[in-house]
Amino acid sequence: MHLLSSSFIVLLFLLMSSSSLLRTVSGLDAVLGQYGETLEIPCNNGVVKADDVLLIKWKYDKGEGLSGDLLVKQKNQNLSIIASDEYKGRVNMASNASLLLSSSTLRDQRTFTCMVVAGADIAEYPVNVLISKTPAVLEISDKAEELEIGKVMKLGTCVAKDAHPAANITWLKNNKPLESDGKRVSVVVSEQVDPLSGLFTTSSTLKYSAEKEDADAEFSCTSESVGQRSSAVTFTITYSTENIVLEVLSQDPLVEGDNVTLKCVADGNPAPTSFTFHLKGETVKVENTDTFTIINVSRETSGEYRCSLINKPELQASENVLVHYLDVTLNPSGSVVKKAGEDVNVSLLIEASGETVVSWTKDKIKLDKEPEFTALTFSHSGLYESKVTMGQLSRDASFQLRVQGAPVITQLSKQRGEDGQHKVLTCEAEGFPEPAVSWSINGSSPEEQSSFIDGKISHRLTVVPSVNLTVFCTVVNQFGSDSKSITVSSYQSEDKGQMKMAVGVVVGLLLATMVVALIYGLYVKKSKQGSWKTGEENGSSEEEKKLEEKLEEKVEESSQKAEV
Ligand SMILES: *[C@@H]1O[C@H](CO)[C@@H](O)[C@H](O)[C@H]1NC(C)=O
Ligand SMILES: *[C@@H]1O[C@H](CO)[C@@H](O)[C@H](O)[C@H]1NC(C)=O
Ligand SMILES: *[C@@H]1O[C@H](CO)[C@@H](O)[C@H](O)[C@H]1NC(C)=O
Ligand SMILES: *[C@@H]1O[C@H](CO)[C@@H](O)[C@H](O)[C@H]1NC(C)=O
Ligand SMILES: *[C@@H]1O[C@H](CO)[C@@H](O)[C@H](O)[C@H]1NC(C)=O
Ligand SMILES: *[C@@H]1O[C@H](CO)[C@@H](O)[C@H](O)[C@H]1NC(C)=O
Ligand SMILES: *[C@@H]1O[C@H](CO)[C@@H](O)[C@H](O)[C@H]1NC(C)=O
Ligand SMILES: *[C@@H]1O[C@H](CO)[C@@H](O)[C@H](O)[C@H]1NC(C)=O
Fold first, then answer.
1. Residues 249-271: what's their mean pLDDT?
2. What are the CA-CA distances from residue 98 to residues 92, 127, 246, 422 (Å)?
3. pLDDT band at 449 (very low <50, low <70, confident <90, very high)
4. Closest residue (by CA) to atom 14 of ligand 6?
5. 441 touches ligand 7 (CB under 6 Å)
6. Distance from residue 17's CA to the centre of ligand 7 (Å)
7. How far apart are CA 262 and CA 293, in angstroms?
8. pTM of this prediction?
9. Which ligand number lies closest to the CA of residue 223?
10. Which of 19, 109, 175, 460 has its CA 20 to 30 A from that of 98?
């Protein structure tokens, strides 16, 4: 049976070859297949139905005018594969007459023809087969360790392995194509063909001159035509130091006793790690740090400082260090005791690194100017404080001045007591240390018997005199004493204590008498109307007594004045 059919086919072939009915479809169809995969080569674009035709045969162009048979299918017969060469075991036919070619290689790039016999009609449909292969994953090899700025270096090689046709490699930086310009960017491409498979391996080497901004740049390569792309790579960008700055790290203001840190800031990648600090004549080398600290600075520390790279000494930075200082010497200082009438020379010596402002206070009250003392008085006593400021710095200095001397009575006065029965004598004196006050008569003293403030003392004595008295107040301390007298009349009276005018006493007395008489007249008149008396007072006799007293006082006063 098999033999029979074979001979039938051969017969048919001979017939067909010579048949005038044979027609070849003009215009070659082309099919693109993927390398290694099963390729479907359609017969007459798939419009053929194997069951409808008498015979379908697939053959291929062996070259040099020869053709090789692959398979044949007769109506109502099983498919017969007749391929004997490289296609043995690789061919099959689909029900729509397509030739199925498995494990396609580049050698399959030839013309396959499907011959269809339907009735008396014999047609041939040649199909051109092209095989392509996308390269294996694109890879960047020979990647540079790091890129040095401004130096053309081989960045890496992008390899597109086993491709057909050969891959066209484009380099990308941050997803943008890098155009070869022959200077900063240049690309060298090489291609290799595998003699066995005929596949191309393309290598594209990028030579590149990096810039500072390339520190984070992503480089990749792509074969656009087949949509392949390598993974991105980044590079450490190295560059030598170009800029160096000396920073002075210190408190503001920098004052004596502080520490100051010099910091040498230099660019470059990798950053420099060792520096030379030039400290006013002295040089110090530091490693693995960029700082140098000067401890406990003084005014002598002020000056210009520099730093440089150990391996590039010509690159230097400099900065000035200014140590502020404010020294104040006040003379006198502390507690100062002087005698009244003496001089005190006040001197405030200021040594400062800048402009200063001085202010003074005495007992916390601001003074207009520096205190000057010629012929000290007791009122000069007090706490003198000076404040010297310079920017944020300030210094305080002070002295406590105490003026000593024999006491002097400044005032001795008398005053009628509130009840009209007694008199209050007041003895005021100045002096330091506190003088002891004594009176020539006995009496009682009010609660706050005396006060001693700022070298001034005030002492009071309450007396109820039964006779006319001359009372002495005596003040005494280690430096001397003073004494003054005052006359106290037995009648209660007031003394204004003004006993200085000796001239015109008589005129004054007369005048006073007249005035008193006038007032008395008015008073009598008014009291009769009973208008402005307080309930406590006991009638006109009390008032009369008062007036009498006044009158008597005037007389007394004038007599005293006459005595002076
Ligand atoms: C022929 O049939 C195969 C499966 O049998 C199918 O994959 C292919 O698309 C068909 N070809 C055409 C041209 O219709
Ligand atoms: C076709 O093949 C099947 C099994 O593959 C076989 O049973 C059958 O006899 C064959 N037919 C012819 C006509 O050779
Ligand atoms: C490769 O690609 C570049 C740009 O994408 C194009 O100019 C060039 O013609 C291509 N070369 C090939 C062989 O396809
Ligand atoms: C200065 O540095 C020394 C040593 O590090 C430290 O003991 C001292 O407290 C520092 N002085 C100041 C004012 O910071
Ligand atoms: C700082 O230096 C001054 C002299 O410049 C010295 O008197 C002082 O003791 C020093 N202080 C410290 C903490 O070293
Ligand atoms: C104060 O200074 C003057 C001159 O400047 C001097 O004659 C006098 O003795 C000084 N007085 C004191 C108490 O130092
Ligand atoms: C004052 O009183 C004392 C006793 O308290 C007495 O010895 C003295 O004589 C009195 N002096 C006068 C002046 O009265
Ligand atoms: C007190 O002195 C006044 C005048 O100075 C006189 O009139 C009076 O009589 C005197 N009184 C006594 C008690 O001596």
1. 93
2. 8, 11, 81, 152
3. low
4. 345
5. yes
6. 178
7. 6
8. 0.55
9. 3
10. 19
